[in-house]
Amino acid sequence: MGIRFTVSGQDSGSAARLGRVETEHGGFDTPAFMTVGTRGSVKGLTPAMLRDCGCQIVLGNTYHLMLRPGSAVVAALGGLPEFSGWRGPMLTDSGGFQVFSLASLREFGDDGVIFRSHIDGAEIHLGPLESMRVQHELGADIAMTFDDCPPADCSPERLSDAIARTLRWAEMCCREHQRLDPQGRQALFGIVQGGTDAAVRHQCAVELIKLDFAGYAIGGLAVGEGHARMVETIAVTAPLLPAHKPRYLMGVGYPRDILEAVKCGVDMFDCVLPTRNGRNALAFTYDGPMRLRNAQYISDARPLEPGCDCLCCREFSRGYIRHLFSVGEMLGPTLVSVHNVRFFQRWMLDIRRAIRDNNLSALKAPDAGAIRGENGV
Fold it and tell me: What confidence score (pLDDT) does residue 63 get?
C-alpha cells in the first residue's frame, strides 16, 4: 500500500482520532496539516525552516511541476524529496484541480482533458494515465487520483458528469498506478467528489471504496459553498470512508474548518493560507488576524505573537517586520510565512493534545474569520 496507518486514540465525544502514517521517507502524526510547496518549494522557506516550524509532511503540485521543470527532470535529479531538499514524507496532488481552475480552452475526453498552459498557451493533454506517470516520476510517498472537480454552483447535469468521469478516471488511475509501481512503494488515494449533494457523495464513496485505495480524500469543498454546508457535507461523507485508512480533506485550512472536520474523523489537511497570507503581511494569531502594514505597528517592540516559539517571534519585533514590508525587503514575507506555518502546526498540536486528553469539545478555534476571502484565498 506504500504507507502504514495506525490509530492510537479516539475522542469519546466525536469521531476525532489520533493516528500516525508511516512512509518510506518517514512518518507524520495525525490529524496533520500539510504545508503546500506547489512548485517543489514552500515559497520563501527552506526545508530547515519547515522542520523548525514542526512540519512533518509537505505537498507538491503535479500540474505545475509537470509544466516546469517537467517530471522527467525531477526524476533524473532523484525525485521530488531529493530535488526539493525536503527528505521527509511528501504528497502530490493529481493536477486535476489546477486544470479546471487555471487552464483555459479545456476540452473533455474519455481519457483526460486537453487544455492550454497558463504559462505559454501551449496545448497539453492531462488525464489519469499522464497524472499517474508524472506522480510516479516525481516520486512522492502519496499520489492522488486524477478527478473532475466541479464548481460549487454547477448544474445537476454537470455534477452527474463529474462523478461519472471521476469514477471512470479513478479506475484508470488504479490500473496504471499498479502497472507503474508493482512493488507498491507509492500509496494512491482516491478522491470523493459530489458537491454538497449527500446522495451523490454517498454514490461516489461507495464506488471508490471498491477500488481499495490506500486512503481517501474529500475533494471539491472550500469552493464557495460556505462553512455550514461544508461541515454538513464532511459530516455525511467522512463516516462513509474506511476507518482503518487515512481520510484527507483537500484544500481546507481555516482553523475552525479544520476543527469541525477533525470532529468528523478527518486526518489530513492542506491549504496555501499560511504562506499566501504571510507574503501579504497578514499573520494568523490566537487572538485574531494581524495586518502588519498598519501604522499602529511602527514602533511596536513586541514579538508578533507573545508565547509563539517560531523564529519570527523569537528574534524580531512587530515594528521591524512592518518596516521590512514598507521598504519591500524579502525577509518580511519570509518571517511572517514562518510564523503562519508554525501557527498551523501549533494548532494541530493543540488538536492532537485535546483528543489525547479526551477534551476536544472544550477546544475553541482561533478567530480567523476576518481573513476569509482576502488575497484571492
Answer: 92
Domain spans in the chain, listed from the N-terminal domain onward: 4-271, 272-369
Active-site annotation holder among 11, 257, 270, 350: 270
Rg (CA), the chain: 20
Q: How far apart are CA 278 and CA 281, in angstroms?
A: 5
Check if the beta carbon of residue 248 is closer than 8 Å to that of residue 189.
Answer: yes
- Is 350 assigned a catalytic role? no
Task: Compute the distance between CA of residue 215 and CA of residue 235 in angstroms, rounded to an integer.
Answer: 18
Contacts of 76 (CB under 8 A, 6+ apart): none
Beta carbons of 303 and 9 less than 8 angstroms apart = no
Residues 201-222 pLDDT 10s:
999 999 999 999 999 999 999 9
Whether residue 337 contacts residue 312, with contact meaning beta carbons closer than 8 Å, is answered with: no
Residues 258/34, Cβ–Cβ less than 8 Å:
no
Q: Is 111 a catalytic residue?
A: no
Q: What's the pLDDT tens digit per position in 8-54?
A: 999 999 999 999 999 999 999 999 999 999 999 999 999 999 999 99
H/E stretch holding 268 reads strand 268-271
DSSP assigned state of 257: H
Q: What is the pLDDT of residue 110?
A: 83
Query: Which one is predicted more confidently, 371 or 142?
Result: 142
Q: Is there a contact between 55 and 338 (Cβ–Cβ < 8 Å)?
A: no
User: Nearest Cα to 332, choosing from 259, 283, 367?
Assistant: 283
CATH number of the domain at 4-271, out of 1.50.10.10, 3.40.50.1820, 3.20.20.105, 3.20.20.70?
Answer: 3.20.20.105
> 219-253 pLDDT, tens per residue?
999 988 999 999 999 999 999 999 999 999 999 99
* Residue tagged active-site, from 11, 93, 141, 257: 93
pLDDT on residue 68: 96
